[in-house]
Amino acid sequence: MDQLLNKTRGDKVIWAAVMLLTLMSLLVVYSSTGTLAYKLSKSTESYLFKQFAFIAIGVMIIYFAHRINYTIYSRVALILFLIAIPLLMYTLLFGAKINEGSRWIRLPIINLTFQTSDLAKLALFMYLSRQLSRAQDVIKDFKKGFLPLIIPVGIICVLIAPANLSTALLIGSTSLLLMFIGRVSMKHILLTILVAIVPVILLVTISLSYYDQKEHRTKDLPAILSVGRIPTWIKRVQDFVYADKEETAYQVQQAKIAIAKGGWLGLGPGNSEQRNFLPHPYSDFIFAIIIEEYGLIGGTVILLVYLLFLFRSIRIFKKCPYAFGAFLAVALSFTLVIQALVNMAVNVNLFPVTGVTLPLMSMGGSSFLFTCLAIGIILSVARNAEKTEVAEPAEA
Questions:
Q1: What value does the CA radius of gyration of the chain take, rounded to a whole number of Å?
Q2: How confident is the model at residue 247 (pLDDT cuts 50, 70, 90)?
Q3: Residue ranges of the domains in the chain?
């Protein structure tokens, strides 16, 4: 055990944040899976043990990933990116369909579902970090600097968007943020934002046009707007805009009730009442359950832990002597924290329902393990940055 601890390096604050969030997830997942266990005729203890198993595997992934020199990730970035594209195409065409969206593929033999967008996101940020570090001399040039960056981002986002628009938007926004940090020309970034915002404005306009305010329901959509996930996107925008109507936004209404019941100090661990009414209280709306049981103070603590995680990752970015490691650490930390903030914003009705989970807190799955891998990579950068700091005084 001592040897294992001695080999554990990286930012100790990030390690502490990970341990706090995962231990907290054990309590909240155990508390929020009662209705799910009843529906599937299982015990809540089975979900507790399942979450514990995911945490144990996740911590092992973090440990082994942080022991690998982060330069290895630069070498495999292009390979992973090229693997991710056909996987996304396969998922889109033949993946497991849930709510008219194909996000998962079922792995043979072990019979588990795997969300390919998680792999694609990780591969994309590795590849972008690699390209940014290599193209600093021509980064302001449109053809040599900008196009080699934005084309991969566009490919990944286009392949993910039909089944998971919110994830595509998160990946796109984080990629643009990374480009800004990487000194990409601001006019190129603004041009991309203007192009990307057009379909978003179009979606909002259509959503408001096809809402019957007298009957509080969506009007009959034409055939062209009834394809794939488009009706779901329209409904979510309408629910967000008209959330004050009793007939709309059931999920958000139940989340608001949970938050109101929690007050400042909460009802106490395991005492949530809205877990029996709130859809997906163990994943998409787990933050509402956290506030109900631990109060606004508990919710604020969780928010501050994520922000502390981001602050320490930015510190790693500043300390890392090599561009690839610096860009990789900041990209992975931003995508994790932005996802957490979006999930929290949805729970308190500051953002339309997206379906994104709360990293390290929601019930375990492939997303949980890929989050752990991303954290392991961040800690790998931190570990090697520490070695460089130790070596420089020794040489002096």
A1: 22
A2: low
A3: 9-67+249-391, 77-209
302-359 pLDDT, tens digit per residue, is: 999 999 999 999 998 888 888 898 999 999 999 999 999 999 998 888 888 887 889 9
Query: CA 314, 172, 153 angle in degrees (round to 5)?
Result: 105
Short-list 86, 205, 176, 185, CA closest to 144: 185
Amino acid at 122: L
Measure the CA–CA gap between 135 and 353, rounded to whole angstroms. 37
The residues near 284 (Cβ < 8 Å, ≥ 6 apart) are 251, 343, 346, 353, 354, 355, 356, 357, 362
Alpha helices in 95-161 (DSSP H): 116-134, 147-160
Q: What is the pTM of this model?
A: 0.90
Q: At what angle do helices 165-181 and 116-134 cross, to 10 degrees?
A: 20
Residue for token pair 């900041």: 330
| Helix or strand holding residue 104 (H, E) | strand 101-106
- Chain segment 56-66, per-residue pLDDT in tens: 999 999 999 99
Contact 362, 370 (CB under 8 A): no
Per the CB < 8 A criterion, the answer to whether 81 and 126 are in contact is yes
